[in-house]
Design goal:
Elements: H1 10-13, E1 20-25, H2 40-54, E2 59-64, H3 72-78, H4 84-107, E3 113-117, E4 126-127, H5 130-138, E5 142-146, H6 156-166, E6 171-176, E7 181-182, E8 194-195, E9 197-199, H7 200-205, H8 213-221, E10 226-230, H9 236-241, E11 248-251
Parallel strand pairs: 1-2, 1-6, 2-5, 3-4, 3-5, 6-10, 9-11
Antiparallel strand pairs: 7-8, 10-11
Helix pairs in contact: 2-4, 3-4, 6-8
Bound molecules: uridine-5'-diphosphate (UDP).
Subcellular location: Cytoplasm
Keywords: ATP-binding, Cytoplasm, Kinase, Nucleotide-binding, Pyrimidine biosynthesis, Transferase
Catalytic activity: UMP + ATP = UDP + ADP
Length: 256
């Protein structure tokens, strides 16, 4: 391997709206419509879209949830034998399973990837080290951040916000099945209104279901923008990464 200094990518990146992003995918995004398990077709399709986004030159870190396998709060609620903290650790392990599936789906598209886990699992993934993650990103690798932040009682939304701050991502892109943030659940209420732009305070005061409260508080405190968008629409991951108006933009002030 050459010892020549590697480009930090800034030359190819100068035209980009966002140079580095954290893409938050729910575990269910890897599943068929039932929302459970891992579908080769669904994960392959997401990988194809992420490849198009990566081809723009943007650095991409991905945080994947585990809800297609297990969510700690739900599981402990329905299974009194398991302590809630244990259930959250089980949820974190679920995110590692999803991350490994996503890694192979991305590599099948010719992308270079690294899975970095907040819980050491050295046979299957690197342990998350901020500076090493930055080096991978600067070398054009997609970094898949597994096991959330490694602590129970939060979700991978918080991990996406936390890691976005650590790696100085320009934005958190929260991929959902709907077109953005609505005044009500659009899958139940046909009159729900889609917001184009919101402030963090709007989200907190209106109690809008965007990301968990810790994630919103972290983003608000550090003015890290969030874009909530529909990843199911073909080309939307590229559009979101390119800074096009997709879904709902959330920041300290509304977008003009
Ligand atoms: N989890 C955790 N700490 C973290 C991230 C996740 O305890 O830093 C657990 C938590 O129980 C969570 C589960 O892992 O419910 C799966 O993640 P999440 O619910 O965010 O998955 P998603 O809904 O995005 O698929």
């Amino acid at each position: 391997m050459s010892d020549a200094p590697q480009s930090d990518g800034s030359d190819v990146q100068s035209h980009l709206h966002y140079k580095r992003v954290v893409l938050k995918l729910s575990g269910e995004s890897l599943a068929d419509s039932g929302g459970r398990g891992i579908s080769g077709e669904e994960s392959g399709e997401i990988a194809r879209q992420i490849k198009l986004a990566h081809d723009t030159g943007c650095q991409i870190a991905i945080v994947i949830g585990g809800g297609n396998i297990l969510r700690g709060a739900q599981f402990s609620g329905s299974n009194s034998m398991v302590h809630e903290a244990t259930a959250h650790y089980m949820g974190m392990l679920a995110t590692i399973i999803n991350s490994l599936a996503m890694q192979d789906a991305l590599e099948a598209h010719g992308l270079q990837t690294r899975v970095m886990s907040a819980i050491p699992t050295d046979k299957i993934a690197e342990t998350f080290i901020r500076r090493r993650a930055l080096r991978h990103l600067n070398r054009g690798r997609i970094v898949i951040l597994a096991a959330g932040i490694g602590n129970p009682f939060v979700t991978t939304d918080t991990a996406a916000a936390q890691r976005a701050l650590e790696i100085e991502a320009d934005v958190v892109l929260k991929a959902t099945r709907v077109d953005g943030v609505y005044s009500d659940d659009p899958e139940k209420n046909p009159h729900a209104v889609l917001y184009e732009s919101l402030t963090y305070s709007d989200v907190m005061e209106k109690n809008l279901r965007v990301m968990d409260a810790t994630a919103i508080a972290l983003c608000s405190e550090h003015k890290k923008p969030i874009v909530v968008f529909n990843f199911k629409k073909n080309g939307n991951i590229v559009r979101a990464i390119s800074g096009e108006n997709v879904g709902t933009w959330i920041g300290a002030e509304k977008k003009n």
